[in-house]
Design brief:
- This protein has a domain of 269 residues.
- The protein is 58% helix and 4% strand.
- A hairpin with a 5-residue loop joins β1 and β2.
- α3 crosses α10, α6 packs across α12 and α7 packs antiparallel against α9.
- The longest helix is centred in the first third of the chain and has 29 residues.
- It starts with a helix and ends in a 5-residue tail after the last helix.
- The mean pLDDT is 91.
């Protein structure tokens, strides 16, 4: 809103300083500051309100250190994150940008699903919350909206990078086509020509190649949205773990959006140029500010939990953001923490069922899953598991910080994959 107001004042009245709103870097910084202030200043009031209404977390005793001390801690704090993202975005982002609109829809859509899940748990006293099938339906619905919008919108286009080679077959320059095109191309890491076209899987279909390529693309979008939002939800098990990890991911996504939406930087890195995605850096600024501000209260010992209201939302935001800038194939690296947490649960459940069927007794790979709880459980043999290290349980804060460090390393690796080919 402020963006459109000041753009109007700059264009027609030449108001001093109004032109600053034309710069993405200025509006990104402003979005970050506003989100940080909203999440910290108003976060305290929301926590007090939740405590007054006795909207606290129900804790199931799993024998974890300090676990029962968290009983009654206010939950549904994801509302703070959502508000702190949406208000700065609505104020300083270009609301005519299709990518910004998609991010707003994603935030509201998954925020509502997460809120409904938490509402059922807290107010209706149903520990199961929203059924798994209902969550999946909501996530698939969002995936369809995002995928079909990217397919149908005339504003969603790319310019493919073409290498200009000189002597000794060295790349001397990168040129882009003068015309924007609709395409199902995406960035694939570690390959010399790092553009993957989903439509190439259907070359034998002739004229129908592009249509089937978009169908595959939409299916990939649905899978990624579901997987990453669930991954963030599973990771949200220790104070500050999901919040801090998401802030790191947000920084990397912001960098990727900036270089993808700037023809000069995209040319330097020899990646596809995606017009309009530079505006997403403003949303990334709000996302980073909101998560860091929430971390003020969510860090150990947590004064509030984000609940599914927050975890499903931030996971969905990360997924849709990466898809919009055509970097979804970098998610296994960038969101490696979420991926490993997801896999630890899948492996644990599968192995337990297999061993129970074969030996009549279920066995474990980890002392407990998701993986972060494995490091909290004692390794004295009281919990039979294939992996017993570490022998001594680690403090919760140490586990969280080490996961953050791993996330930071993965984030840096994600950036340098643009040059490692």
């Amino acid at each position: 809103m402020l963006y459109h107001l000041f753009s109007y004042l700059d264009r027609y009245f030449d108001v001093p300083g109004a032109g600053m709103f034309n710069y993405i870097s200025f509006r990104t910084g402003l979005a970050f500051i506003l989100a940080l202030m909203l999440s910290t200043l108003f976060g305290r009031r929301i926590i007090d309100f939740l405590q007054k209404k006795q909207i606290g977390e129900t804790i199931r005793d799993l024998g974890l250190e300090g676990q029962m001390a968290k009983k009654g801690t206010p939950t549904m704090g994801g509302v703070i994150i959502i508000i702190a993202i949406l208000i700065p975005t609505l104020l300083v982002a270009n609301l005519n940008n299709i990518y910004i609109l998609l991010m707003i829809i994603t935030t509201v859509w998954l925020g509502m699903i997460g809120f409904l899940d938490d509402y059922i748990k807290v107010f209706l006293k149903n520990k199961e919350g929203l059924s798994g099938k209902s969550k999946i339906v909501g996530q698939v619905g969002l995936g369809l909206i995002v995928g079909l919008t990217l397919y149908l919108s005339p504003d969603v286009v790319i310019r493919e990078n073409k290498e200009i080679k000189g002597d000794n077959n060295r790349v001397e320059d990168v040129h882009y086509a003068k015309v924007d095109v609709k395409s199902t191309q995406s960035t694939i890491p570690f390959f010399k020509n790092n553009n993957l076209n989903y439509a190439d899987a259907f070359k034998s279909l002739g004229d129908k190649q592009q249509i089937y390529g978009w169908i595959l693309f939409v299916l990939v979008v649905i899978f990624i949205v579901t997987a990453v939002s669930n991954g963030a939800n599973i990771t949200d098990g220790l104070d500050g773990l999901a919040t801090g990890s998401s802030a790191i991911i947000g920084v990397i996504l912001g960098i990727l959006a900036y270089v993808s939406g700037n023809v000069n930087y995209a040319g330097y890195l020899n990646i596809m140029y995606i017009p309009g995605t530079g505006e997403m850096v403003v949303f990334a600024g709000a996302f980073i500010g909101a998560t860091i501000g929430f971390l003020w209260y969510n860090s150990y010992p947590a004064q509030i939990f984000m609940g599914d209201t927050g975890s499903l939302t931030i996971g969905g935001i990360i997924a849709v953001f990466a898809i919009a800038i055509r970097k979804e194939l970098l998610i296994p690296i960038l969101c490696g923490v979420f991926l490993v947490e997801n896999l630890s649960v899948m492996l644990q459940v599968s192995y337990f069922k297999y061993t129970k069927k074969r030996y009549g007794e279920g066995r474990r790979i980890f002392k407990m899953s998701p993986l972060h709880h494995h490091f909290q459980k004692p390794g004295d043999g009281s919990i039979p598991a294939l992996i017993q290290n570490p022998k001594i349980p680690l403090p919760e804060s140490k586990i969280v910080i080490r996961f953050w460090i791993i996330g930071l390393i993965l984030g840096v690796l994600t950036i340098i994959t643009l040059k490692i080919r």
